[in-house]
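Extended Data, record Clp protease N-terminal domain-containing protein
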Amino acid sequence: MFERFTKGARATVTGAVTHAERTGADSVTEEHLLLSLLDQEGSRASFAVAALGLTDRRASLEASLAEARRRGGLTKADTEALAGIGIDVTEIVARVEDAHGEGVLAGDRSTRRWWSARRPFTGGAKSILEKSLRIALGRRDRFIGEEHLLLALTAGPGVVADVLAEHGATYTTVERALYGAGGGAQGQALAG
């Protein structure tokens, strides 16, 4: 599939690996794909990101992603569902952090896999890459570009999609920024 990626999309994927390495993460996640995508310049996706104001709110995006990591990767929908049955995630996180240290639910990044230069992609990150292919095919695009990766990040449930939606970047708003009002939902049916 990687041979179908444009130069910019390849740079985004390799940039995600760099983000994972820089933070000491054991694997490449959807979050790393998003952060790498925000680093890219001069593409249709970078134009959409700027048009939606995400470039100016990168610190806010990163803070929201950090807060989600602190909750152990639970989405807002997960947190609300648990609250509906009487489980206060904020209280649980506070108690766990009191006992074991701040950020413990985000995962232990100190056990870096020094014996391997390659970091695997999480199932969620792989899913984003697969969705980007389906979106490109749905739009009848021959290659997978950064814009397809951006759309894939907004196309399904998950922490990154939640954080993007909080910042005004839903599938519909991103598609509109990329393709205009007549962008249609060609890729939407295949994205889910």
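Summary. The chain is about 60% helix and 0% strand.
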